[in-house]
Amino acid sequence: MAEKVFITGASGFIGANLMRRLLADGFEVTAAIRPGSKNFWRLEDVTDQIRILRLDLTDQKDTAEKLGQIGPNYIFHLAAYGAYPGQIDSEQMWRTNLFAAINLIEAAKVVGFQKMIIAGSSSEYGKKSEAMKESDRLEPSTIYGVSKAASTLYCQYRAREEKLPLAILRPFSVYGPWEEPGRLAPRLIGRALKNEPLELVGSKTVRDFIYIDDVVEACLKSMNEDKINGQIMNICSGMQTEIGEMAEQVVSITGSKSRVQRGSYEARSFDTDIWVGNPEKTKKLLGWQARVALKEGIRQTVEWYKSHKHYYEH
C-alpha cells in the first residue's frame, strides 16, 4: 500500500515540482488548496493522479477534521503568503505563515505522522556581511521575513520540546520549471526569447540561486532522516551570483539579441551585495548538497519554458 503524503501549497512552485516527483516515486499525494483558490495551472496535467482537498489552514477545526480524514505518513507544509510583489496584506501573512503552521502541528499531533517538513525562507535572515548560517541572529527586513521567522522559531520550539519528527528547510533563491510568471528567471527567459531588453536593478544585487530539482531532492532526503528533527537547514548552493550574470547566461543559452540593462530599476529594501547561504550544516545532517550548476539549471529551465509558453504569455 502506497504511503500517504499531504502537501500544503501544492499548487505553488515548489509544491508542484515536489508533488510530481512523489507521484513518480509511487506515493499517494493529497494536495491542500485554499477554499476559493483558482490557482490550478500547475496541477492541470496531474489532477487525475492526486487527491485535491479544499482546506482553510487558518481554521483549526477544519484543519483537524480534514487531516484526520487523510491520515498522512508525511506532511510538507509549503503554503506561504508574502513572497511575491502583489502579496502585501500583512494580516494575511501572519495567518498563513504562522497561524496555519500552529493549526497544522496541533492537528498532526492528534493524527500521528512520520515526518513533517516546514518550508522556511532565507528572508528570515535579513542583510548579513557573510554567508548566512542557521545559528545567525535573525534580522528580517520585510514583514514577510518577520512572519516566516516567527513560524520557524515556533515550529522548532514545538519539535524540540515535544520530540516531534519535524524539521525546517530554509530555501534560498529557487528557480526552475513552474516558477511564478513574474519572478526573475521566467521574466528574463520570456523577454530573451522575444529579443526584448532585460531590465534589472543595479549591478551589485546578488542571490544564492538554487535549482528546483535540488530543492526537491532535499525534501525527499528529509523524509526519513531522524538526525534532522528539530533542526533548521539552509537549502542553498553556497555561491552568490549577481543577477545580471544570470541574465547574461539566459541571453547566451537562448541565443537572444536582448541587451542586459542593469540599473533600470531602483534597488528594493531587501536588495544587497551579499546574499549567500552556508550549506555545511545541511551537508552534515542530511548528506545533501546542490548538484545542478546555474548554467545547466538555466538551460533546463529554458527548454521547459519553450514547451510551456502558454502559461507565461497572456
From TrEMBL:
Domain of life: Bacteria
Cross-referenced InterPro entries: Epimerase_deHydtase (IPR001509), NAD(P)-bd_dom_sf (IPR036291)
Signal peptide annotation: none
Pfam families cross-referenced by the UniProt entry: Epimerase (PF01370)
Every NAD-dependent epimerase/dehydratase domain range: 5-236
Gene3D superfamilies given in the database record: NAD(P)-binding Rossmann-like Domain (3.40.50.720)
PANTHER family reported in the protein's UniProt record: DTDP-D-GLUCOSE 4,6-DEHYDRATASE-RELATED
Family per record: Belongs to the NAD(P)-dependent epimerase/dehydratase family.
Name recorded for this polypeptide: NAD-dependent epimerase/dehydratase domain-containing protein
